[in-house]
Amino acid sequence: MFTTVLAQRDKTQLGELPLDFFAATLSLKKELNAVILAHYYQEPDIQDIADFIGDSLQLAKAAEKTNADVIVFAGVHFMAETAKILNPNKLVLLPDLNAGCTLADSCPAEAFATFKAAHPDHLVVSYINCSADIKAMSDIICTSSNAVKIVQQIPKEQPIIFAPDRNLGRYVMEQTGRDLVLWQGSCIVHETFSEKKIVQLKIAHPEAEAIAHPECESSVLRHASFIGSTAALLKYCQQSNAKKFIVATEPGIIHQMQKLAPDKHFIPAPPMNNCNCNECPFMRLNTLEKLYWAMKNRSPEITMSENIRLAALRPIQRMLEMSV
Ligand code: 13P
Ligand code: SF4
Fold it and tell me: CB neighbours of 17 closer than 8 A, spacing ≥ 6?
């Protein structure tokens, strides 16, 4: 468990941590009747302390089902917002409120309203990686694990806007043969993988399988023998006969891959810059210390207007109904 040296964790900007920090975190969780939901891109220590780890769809489902009074969301803002939309009467905490998302930010509400108005006969399918305001303007929400399935359920003659991720949108177009009107947003992490370095890795490790998240550009996806959401990638590498994988998504997932397939080897796909791996700077703003302080202070809390919440709830519920 806990891979970080405790001595490094004795003090944070928020104050002194108790000596028995891990025990104190668990006892706070019990006291609050809290559940810790964590995305696969969180740092390993958070994954190890979480009650539930999952991809965006699994986390939305877990948030919908929980009986806890407090949801501590170890993920980014739009994920915690989704949990709040589904649970208006629960306290939803995000350890660092600055944990945003370039993809969600690439789709501002005002500009999207204009875009939508220019396509009045279109149904709006939005990727869950968007703000509550965008969800409120959408007809159906999807995640990377159900986007293809959801678009396939929409009658062929119905024109569709797909927002905000152009890469996932392009992938869905290829998989469904549908012509979607794409909002031109993207994820800073998945757009930065280097095709050249992935090809070099494939040459250096000919026995390795490259696997990729559909938020990657098509220049990366074309080198992948499997494309899927984080949960699908995790399942794939457990079931595949391959012993080595080049993983083109945020490397936080490799912690679970290594745990569930300890005999296999995982190489994080490198980005175009000089780093060896490609961590999401927003996901990594959450730390175990901030998680402790969030529970201790019952803050930072996710809030939103009831009008927006109700409007955003409808397309999320449609997604949940369409992805059973
Ligand atoms: P999934 O959780 O659907 O795999 O999406 C990955 C992601 O980028 C979340 O921010
Ligand atoms: Fe957003 Fe990309 Fe980070 Fe996911 S990995 S939270 S899509 S910036």
Answer: 9, 10, 11, 24, 289, 292
End-to-end CA distance of the chain: 33
* Ligand 2 proximity of 129 Cβ (cutoff 6 Å): yes
Statement: residue 9 has pLDDT above 60: no
Say how far apart CA 197 and CA 27 lie, in whole Å.
45
pLDDT confidence of residue 10: 45
Q: What is the CATH number of the domain that holds 217?
A: 3.40.50.10800
Q: How many domains, the chain?
A: 3
Q: Which percentage of the chain shows pLDDT scores above 70? A: 96
Cα 49 to middle of ligand 1, angstroms: 20
User: What mean pLDDT comes out for the span 287-314?
Assistant: 96
| Residue 275: pLDDT band with limits 50, 70, 90 | confident
Residue 6 pLDDT level (bands cut at 50, 70, 90): very low
CA distances from 137 to 109, 144, 181 (A): 9, 19, 16
* Domain match, 93 and 38 both: yes
Report which residue type is found at 215.
E
CA-proximal residue: ligand 1, atom 9 (nearest): 56
Predicted confidence (pLDDT) at residue 71 exceeds the cutoff of 80? yes
Same domain, 20 and 35: yes
**Ligand that lies nearest to the alpha carbon of residue 235, given by its number in the listed order:** 1
Rounded distance from Cα 18 to ligand 2 centre (Å)? 32
Residues of the domain holding 294 = 11-100+282-304
Select from 42, 103, 142 the residue to mutate for testing ligand 2; criterion: most ligand atoms less than 8 Å from CB: 103
Candidates 39, 78, 101, 186: which one to mutate for ligand 1, based on the most atoms within 8 Å of Cβ? 39
Q: Which atom of ligand 2 is nearest to the CA of 129?
A: 7
pLDDT in tens, 305-320: 999 999 999 999 999 9
pTM above 0.85, yes or no: yes
Name the nearest CA neighbour of 256 among 273, 275, 237, 269: 237
Centre of ligand 2 to C-alpha 226, Å, is 20
Residue 293 lies in a domain: yes
